[in-house]
Queue: 3 jobs
Job 1
Amino acid sequence: MNHKSLCHFTTLLLIVYGLLYFQSVSAAVNCSITATPNTNFGSVNVLSASPTDSTATLSYTCSHSDFFTAYSATLCFNIGPSLNSAINPRQMRAAGNTLNYQLYQDSARSMLWGSQYGTWQPVMMNISLPAAFFGTSSTSGTMTVYGRIPGNQTMAVPGGYSDSFSGPNAQMTINQRSAFWNPPPAPGTCGAPVATNFPFNVQASVTSQCFVNASPLNFGNVGLLTAGVSANTALAVQCSRMAPYNVGLSAGQNSGGNINARQMVLGVHNISYQLYQDAARTLVWGDTVGTNTVAGTGTGNTQNLSVYGAVPPQNTPPTGTYNDVIVVTVTY
């Protein structure tokens, strides 16, 4: 009897030893990640109050091939300071000029995407990988990076802007646990081991833009046109910083395309008038660039231009309201 009991006890020890052996030689989870594509905002109008949004995708895969061992892990997707700036605000550059932007964790663009090594937190994800049995146990997924360029950056000069992330500033870390057969609870905190890096770029093209607002030119109530009548109005022009522009005024809808024959009309009757660039009313304002337009360089802010109108002495037509329509064109 004693001899049989001893044999059974020895067999049990061998089984326990075998289980411990498979756990002790288990390998870590391996992960790979890519940023596809880079964050490209495309063309950006910085004079607009509306933001410009874009997205990028991080694709990851994690796997192991341990027969009896299951894993859980907390993955931390870190996006830290960039080549050009700290985290808040982030900046792209073009020949010394800057353009503010930001990267977020959510589509509402309210949660800034940061790094476990700084103030703003990274995106964290828990994964679980059962025992591989015969083969490989793996999981994969994607993370969306939400980008935004705020509007009203009127000091940004037109051009191609860029920024880049690499090394520890574009990095996924992994904090993992293992257990026999079934995955244990995930740690829920970022780990020190670096799983992989995912370098990527951020790009935007700031395009030249111009906006113009015109106020009516009103010569008021006049009697006999035995003497000249004058009046002024203003154009509000806003063009991108450092962008050259020309402002032209059409000949009006009653002149047959001739800027020297501008007319206000009432039915078959008309009043001749003219528009000038200067207060002395010597430079006629037309729409031929380089000849009779007004040139300027954008500052990013609104620039006011005066339009000087004159009605020369002429035969007085019947009473009534006379008008014309002028098209303002900004060439840039």
Job 2
Amino acid sequence: MTTPPSSDLPSAQDVARQVREALTVDSPVAGLVLGSGLGGLANRIEGARSIPYSDLPGFATPTVPGHQGRLIAGTLAGRPVIALAGRFHVYEGHSAAAAAFPVRVLHALGAHTLLLSNAAGGIRRSLQPGDLMIIRDHMNLTWQNPLTGPVVPGDERFPDMSEPWDPELRRLLAESAAAAGVPVTEGVYVGLSGPSYETPAEVRMLERIGADAVGMSTVHEVIVARAIGMRVAGMSCITNLAAGLTEDVISHAEVLEVTSAAGEKFENIAIEFVRRI
């Protein structure tokens, strides 16, 4: 299923009402978006109630392995959360506005803090597969903005993006990682549209303009989150060295293998993060 442009998307409030009718949803302290291979955190949500994306207007069923396609309500560290287990992407044929629409639903369900996660290729030479990187800033090089078109009621038309990744939440993520005994780094994430991986020449360009890691998601979600007033934190799991930095062939199977191995570290950080919000 291809999701529509922003002008044809349903009301996030209407979808949230449908979710509440299907699930018991407490006031969540955070909304969580679980990226490629990082959906294991969903299994650690206690008292989990879920609904498939296919039952929700404006949502699409992900076609990429590693994305479950379920909205889950429950608790982490004894605190209520709402999680999106998997996402759908612009490279699957969806508009930027549609790809970010689930974030609007999290907000309509009461989540005012958002934790985004993704798999990314490492560009900075010090990064290695399995590293976890707190996102300090990002570049949207998909050439699509999810706010293009008529203003959605309640949106800021021109949201300030000087600090899209909340400094206090970044500090909280770093503290959570230290408490979990997991080393982390910080860096700049660049979002491209995909689905092809980058060429060595493209990676050299991205390195020169200041990118530390590259992926195919996330940037549209944080733009929408800022337009509706959500505070945002994010973490990338570095799954491979980007093209030209290694002789290895890059594959999605490798992405899932590395995120599976690093998944428990990410989960422990996320649980500590929710505990400390």
Job 3
Amino acid sequence: MIDIKHKGSIPTGINSKKHLIYKPNQKDDFPISRSKFEDFRKCPKCFYLILVRGFMSPGCPQMTLNSLTDTLLKKEFDLCRKKGVPHRLLKKRKLNHIIPYKNYNLAKDVYGKLIIHTKTKEPYKVIDAWRQNFHGIRRRFKKTNIILYGAVDDIWIDTKTKELIVADYKSSAKKEELTQETYFDDEYKESYKVQLDFYAYLLKGQKEINDIDNDISKDAYFYTVNARGREKSFDSQILFDEKLIHYTINNDYLEDEIEKMIDTINSSKIPKSNERCKNCAYAFVRSKIEDF
């Protein structure tokens, strides 16, 4: 896609925010998000050029309709959280023992300091900080300077086992019905699995930070809403099918992958690109016809 910056300074292709650029073997702590980790897994070269060399890749439009469904679902689950009851879809699936996790203690960061809202100047509650994009759940990776983080859509709790459950909301518009048997057939949904694996890994580090003693469940869920377009006309509404898709957490591979990522950013050598990376393919072809 072609991404145009309509206002402000002319884009240079280099990130002007120096604090977002990692210096190989730096000593200062550096945060890396779940999405950045996913970038590394997709194409190490693009990831390196962005994070270490400060390249600015073209952006993409915000998926505002998806964001709206997320917001509305959070409101629904917050009502259930306040009452301490299971959501209607969980009741339908006979999972009445699962309810939204309630933790209104004041949230602390990896340094033991309270997380303060920049606008209200009030401290965040734990569950709110975990779902806030610029904070999320944070965990230092072993004894390194890398702080991993990610903002979850929701955390539920199994009232029988007291285990915490990672939940994520997904919106789609497919004519086919979403089913447990076929949901993960799409290749891009491998990143969905990594997303929940990553969040579960971050949760395991909350015992020391926010005094969370709960174990993390191997059970995780995607709450999916799918607009199938079966309406005869628009009439100012879109109907969604709701499905609960189960996923079994398996993050045994994560630490090895994270260590590879850290080795990559601490190297002065640009890694090879993924041969299937469209960004790299475009950059290569364009470089052959332009004289910079």
